[in-house]
């Protein structure tokens, strides 16, 4: 059996000490990592961690400094020991801590009096004496966060050793990850808070816009914000004498500042416009108020005016906004020019008024977000806007705006700004229709156009209008093909609105004078019976709320009544 000499015993004893120390290191690392990953209070966790580091590594003092103010300062966020450094700010590129962060390397200074980078300012202020420093950088994925500093080893020689350097490096890695994760979590919480506030601001802005009126109302508007909040706005309200005050405006800039100025200007116009009905005087009053309180050079372009439905006359003033477009009854467009500056730039400005006779035309007031929308690098421009208006000219004003905005989004246009349009026209459309046609397929297009215009004028959505037109078309086609067998005959279409029930319904009645049919024989063919035709009844049942076949009171022909609840689309 081999014998143990003294040297071997000493070696084994040292090895056991090393293993014990390693176990202690690992235990501390595990404990601190657990605290870092489970604590919701990073400040308290950092304080507890720095105390444990100081005690375990037998140092007199310890602190954690983090970069702030665009990485220009190092700020003490946690400290332990006889001196209180919490909140102390140091230049990020000075001292031993600054070098540690800058070089991203551990700094071990055994004698600070011999190190030119040591700054004695803190010692002078606190009366503490620094002999040696061990400082490790806090870094995550090459992102510099700050540094951990230990001061004065509490041993006979007061010096830190290589094991201390390795241990602090490991602790710094764990602390850096915790600080980084805490910052990310705080950032997410802040983003969620800002998002909620922006959503609330958007809701408030939406409430500042006027409630959409009945389709026959002469003024309609549409606003599409590019971001959560908008710098565009429009308004209209009716005076006791029946005249309608209106405006459309665009605030310079983006974001919350523009939204706040938008809210203020809109409120001013709405309040003052109830008593001051001269557009030039009204804009002058709003201008002085905006100029008095505007900041950072912000301003507002606006067109404001008053419309008299009885005389079809519009009186308006323009404060630096792009010219409105007046489309005359014959289809040609005219720019209504204005030369006054925007609101808020100069006080005591005069705003000339322009008088227009609307007749059977339409006035379009819009923001530059419409004409500056782009597709394949090409802006829509004024000519493109006119083409878009013409392509939907057969629709009532409210449905026309809806179709225009649907087109802007459906075409995949890139919007660089908020998009807002206001249209004024004295529509004489009535939400009822009585139409007589011959049982000829050539009559279908005109019938569909008249039906579409009628139901849109009654306030239903564009999507529902197309469904109603499809159902009417199927019903008339069935009459032509099956009731009259493609021979000559008369067909009557009546569309009315039943306001006696809530919500209101369309009543659509089709009447023919063909041979009376057996109602029991009217049924849709099975969908799996793949043959041309025969699915019209099925489509009508799917599209409408109810279908009722009856014999007219005079006993001649056939009567079909279809009903559907009006689905008005909010804008």
Write the layout of secondary structure elements.
Elements: H1 6-38, H2 42-56, E1 59-68, E2 73-80, E3 89-91, H3 95-103, E4 107-109, H4 121-126, E5 133-140, E6 143-153, H5 162-208, E7 219-224, E8 232-238, E9 244-251, H6 255-272, H7 279-293, E10 300-308, E11 313-319, E12 325-327, E13 333-335, E14 353-357, E15 362-366, H8 368-371, E16 374-375, E17 378-379, H9 381-391, H10 397-410, E18 419-424, E19 433-438, H11 444-457, H12 462-483, E20 490-498, E21 505-512, H13 536-543, E22 546-550, E23 558-565
Antiparallel strand pairs: 1-2, 1-6, 2-3, 4-5, 5-6, 7-18, 8-9, 9-10, 10-11, 11-14, 12-13, 12-15, 15-18, 16-17, 19-20, 20-21, 21-23, 22-23
Helix pairs in contact: 1-2, 1-5, 2-5, 5-6, 6-7, 11-12, 12-13
Q: Largest beta sheet, briefly?
A: 6 strands, antiparallel
Strand content: 15-25%
Q: What would the CATH topology of the largest domain be?
A: Phosphatase 2c, domain 1
The main sheet orders its strands as 3-2-1-6-5-4
How many helical stretches? 13
Spatial gap, N to C terminus: 97 Å
What is this entry, summarized?
The chain has 571 residues and is α+β, with helices and mostly antiparallel strands.
What can you tell me about this protein's structure?
Mean pLDDT is 82; it is low at 526-533. The chain is an alpha+beta fold. It starts with 5 loop residues before the first helix and ends in a 6-residue tail after the last strand. It folds into three domains: 21-186, GAF domain (Beta-Lactamase); 220-424, PPM-type phosphatase domain (Phosphatase 2c, domain 1); 433-565, Histidine kinase-like ATPase, C-terminal domain (Heat Shock Protein 90, 2-Layer Sandwich). It has helices at residues 6-38, 42-56, 95-103, 121-126, 162-208, 255-272, 279-293, 368-371, 381-391, 397-410, 444-457, 462-483, 536-543, and strands at 59-68, 73-80, 89-91, 107-109, 133-140, 143-153, 219-224, 232-238, 244-251, 300-308, 313-319, 325-327, 333-335, 353-357, 362-366, 374-375, 378-379, 419-424, 433-438, 490-498, 505-512, 546-550, 558-565. Helix 2 runs antiparallel to helix 5 (162-208) and helix 5 (162-208) packs parallel to helix 6.
């Amino acid at each position: 059996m081999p014998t143990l000499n003294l040297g071997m015993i000493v070696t084994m004893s040292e090895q056991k000490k090393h293993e014990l120390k390693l176990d202690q290191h690992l235990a501390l690392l595990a404990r601190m990592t657990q605290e870092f990953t489970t604590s919701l209070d990073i400040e308290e966790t950092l304080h507890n961690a720095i105390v444990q580091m100081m005690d375990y590594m037998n140092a007199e003092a310890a602190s954690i400094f983090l970069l702030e103010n665009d990485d220009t300062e190092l700020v003490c966020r946690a400290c332990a020991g006889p001196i209180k450094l919490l909140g102390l700010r140091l230049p990020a590129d000075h001292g031993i801590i600054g070098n540690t962060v800058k070089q991203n390397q551990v700094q071990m200074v055994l004698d600070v009096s011999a190190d030119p980078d040591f700054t004695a300012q803190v010692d002078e202020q606190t009366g503490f004496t620094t002999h040696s420093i061990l400082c490790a950088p806090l870094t995550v994925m090459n992102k510099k966060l700050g540094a951990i500093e230990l001061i004065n080893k509490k041993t006979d020689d007061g010096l830190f050793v290589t094991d201390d350097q390795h241990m602090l490096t490991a602790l710094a890695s764990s602390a850096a990850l915790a600080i980084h994760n805490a910052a990310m979590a705080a950032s997410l919480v802040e983003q969620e808070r800002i998002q909620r506030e922006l959503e609330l601001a958007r809701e408030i802005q939406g409430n500042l816009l006027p409630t959409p009126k009945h389709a026959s109302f002469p003024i309609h508007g549409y606003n599409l914000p590019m971001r959560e909040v908008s710098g565009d706005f429009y308004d209209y309200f009716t005076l006791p004498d029946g005249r309608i005050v209106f405006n459309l405006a665009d605030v310079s800039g983006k974001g919350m500042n523009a939204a706040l100025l938008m809210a203020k200007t809109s409120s001013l116009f709405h309040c003052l416009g109830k008593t001051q009905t001269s557009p030039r005087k009204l804009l002058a009053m709003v201008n002085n108020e905006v100029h008095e309180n505007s900041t950072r050079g912000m301003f507002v372009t606006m067109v404001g005016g008053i419309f008299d439905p009885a005389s079809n006359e519009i009186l308006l003033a323009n404060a630096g906004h792009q010219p409105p477009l007046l489309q005359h009854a014959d289809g040609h467009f005219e720019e209504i020019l204005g030369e006054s500056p925007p609101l808020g730039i100069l006080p005591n400005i005069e705003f000339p008024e322009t008088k227009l006779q609307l007749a059977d035309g339409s006035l379009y007031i819009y923001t530059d977000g419409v004409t500056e929308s782009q597709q394949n690098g090409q802006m829509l421009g004024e000519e493109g806007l006119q083409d878009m208006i013409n392509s939907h000219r057969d629709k009532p004003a409210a449905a026309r705006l809806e179709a225009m905005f649907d087109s802007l989004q459906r075409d995949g246009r890139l919007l660089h700004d908020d998009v807002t349009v206001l249209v004024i026209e004295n529509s004489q459309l009535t939400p009822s229709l009585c139409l007589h046609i011959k049982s000829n397929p050539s009559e279908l297009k005109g019938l569909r156009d008249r039906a579409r215009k009628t139901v849109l004028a009654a306030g239903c959505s564009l999507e529902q209008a197309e469904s109603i037109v499809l159902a009417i078309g199927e019903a008339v086609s069935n009459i032509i093909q099956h009731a009259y067998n493609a021979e000559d005959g008369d067909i009557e279409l009546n569309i009315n609105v039943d306001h006696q029930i809530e919500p209101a319904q369309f009543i659509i009645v089709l009447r023919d004078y063909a041979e009376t049919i057996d109602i029991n024989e009217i049924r849709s063919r099975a969908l799996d019976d793949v043959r041309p035709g025969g699915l019209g009844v099925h489509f009508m049942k799917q599209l409408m709320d109810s279908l009722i076949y009856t014999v007219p009171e005079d006993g001649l022909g056939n009567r079909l009544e279809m009903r559907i609840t009006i689905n008005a689309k909010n804008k």
